[in-house]
């Protein structure tokens, strides 16, 4: 993990800990490397001065501490100390040496299938412990996973919430990271352990491809793709693609449980280590279009504005946003069946099994623009002709 020197405005001592370096900064606060008198190293997070007076941020900070206290096992950094009543609230966890998954992929490139499966199996086991504590992380992503010598560790529970809580701070604002948010988070429905499973699948895809399965773009564009488009898993190894695709199901009820993920990924890691070829992927649709054809820049913003208002907002028929719709919480011993890609309705087929010819969105969009321009042209031409005729009539008189 990259370390930076302390700045002039940074504190030198917090509680019983002396601070030595900056480890990073986020929206809520700054994380420092510190040590106590015995030399025990900690990662100490202090809330930003401008946010310390904000009760909402204090509450979020308190939730992070509460979540850290409830989770058992080695999947997270152990809580060492905290002071929520301080002028600038803080807490300290055991320091985890090692890069984040994001930094490792950025520096060394994509990971081989065996390593992705091994990391994924340990992460899934860690998520079992997180969910058994009644916590949903809500912001699982590569930068919140540290690769320690003893295995991956999940960090940053700043927006974690109890099972079944809403995902919005206010209407229309989803909390989390676009590209790793689940569709139900975008729609504003209740979060469940299945919400973390979606982010888990996107994280595995990133480790295998160095990119989000929904490409790149503005927040509006990314949120639209998460809700309405299929993920692009073209670069994901065949051994992992079916499981990743299952994690990225739009319907939370179709995603596998964390227990199933841990077991399946452990099997895949062992098989890949022995060099056994994976079966060919079947029933996994490619992205709605190759990534280069997806709109970027100003076209991407226009793309989002024209679709997000009517597409992302939950409608009366939306399953994820429907009142009373609940997703069963998987238990440790649960054996909820996993729907394979072949069992799910393939793209381009209706419920009755009949095929239909798909119409690319880009083509439909261009057709609408052409019709609109033709209508404007005809209208202007007619108005101009009427004005000319009126002027000629005036000259006669």
UniProtKB/TrEMBL annotation:
Basic and acidic residues compositional bias, start-end: 291-310
Disordered: annotated span: 276-363
Highest taxon in the source lineage: Bacteria
Protein kinase domain ranges (all copies): 17-268
TM stretches of this protein: 374-393
The keyword ATP-binding is annotated on this UniProt entry: yes
Glycoprotein in keyword set: no
Keywords: ATP-binding, Kinase, Membrane, Nucleotide-binding, Transferase, Transmembrane, Transmembrane helix
PANTHER family assigned to the protein according to its UniProt record, in alphabetical order: MITOGEN-ACTIVATED PROTEIN KINASE KINASE KINASE 20-RELATED, SERINE_THREONINE-PROTEIN KINASE YBDM-RELATED
UniProt name for this protein: Protein kinase
Organism for this UniProt entry: Actinacidiphila acidipaludis
């Amino acid at each position: 993990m990259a370390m930076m020197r302390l700045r002039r405005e940074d504190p030198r001592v917090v509680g019983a800990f002396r601070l030595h370096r900056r480890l990073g900064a986020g929206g809520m606060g700054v994380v420092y490397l510190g040590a106590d008198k015995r030399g025990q190293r900690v990662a100490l997070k202090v809330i930003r001065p401008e946010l310390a007076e904000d009760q909402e941020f204090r509450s979020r900070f308190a939730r992070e501490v509460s979540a850290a206290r409830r989770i058992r096992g080695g999947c997270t950094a152990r809580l060492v100390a905290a002071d929520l009543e301080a002028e600038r609230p803080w807490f300290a966890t055991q320091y985890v040496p090692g890069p984040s998954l994001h930094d490792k992929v950025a520096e060394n490139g994509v990971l081989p299938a065996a390593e992705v499966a091994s990391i994924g199996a340990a992460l899934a086991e860690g998520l079992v412990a997180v969910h058994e504590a009644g916590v949903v992380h809500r912001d699982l992503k590569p930068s919140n996973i540290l690769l320690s010598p003893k295995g991956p560790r999940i960090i940053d529970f700043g927006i974690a919430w109890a099972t079944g809580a809403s995902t919005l701070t206010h209407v229309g604002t989803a909390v989390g990271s676009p590209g790793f948010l689940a569709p139900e988070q975008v729609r504003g429905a209740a979060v469940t352990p299945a919400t973390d499973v979606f982010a888990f699948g996107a994280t595995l895809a990133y480790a295998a491809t160095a990119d989000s399965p929904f490409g790149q773009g503005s927040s509006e564009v990314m949120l639209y793709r998460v809700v309405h488009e299929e993920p692009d898993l073209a670069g994901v190894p065949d051994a992992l693609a079916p499981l990743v695709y299952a994690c990225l199901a739009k319907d939370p009820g179709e995603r596998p449980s964390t227990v199933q993920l841990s077991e399946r990924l452990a099997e895949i890691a062992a098989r890949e280590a022995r060099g056994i070829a994976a079966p060919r992927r079947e029933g996994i649709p490619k992205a709605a279009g190759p990534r280069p054809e997806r709109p970027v820049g100003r076209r991407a913003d226009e793309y989002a504005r024209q679709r997000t208002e009517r597409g992302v907002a939950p409608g009366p028929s939306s399953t994820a946003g429907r009142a009373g719709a609940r997703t069963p919480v998987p238990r440790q011993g649960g054996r909820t069946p996993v729907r394979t890609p072949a069992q799910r309705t393939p793209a381009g087929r209706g419920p009755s099994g009949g095929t239909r010819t798909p119409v690319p969105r880009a083509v439909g969009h261009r057709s609408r623009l052409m019709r609109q321009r033709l209508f404007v042209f005809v209208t202007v031409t007619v108005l101009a002709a009427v004005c000319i005729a009126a002027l000629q009539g005036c000259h006669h008189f």
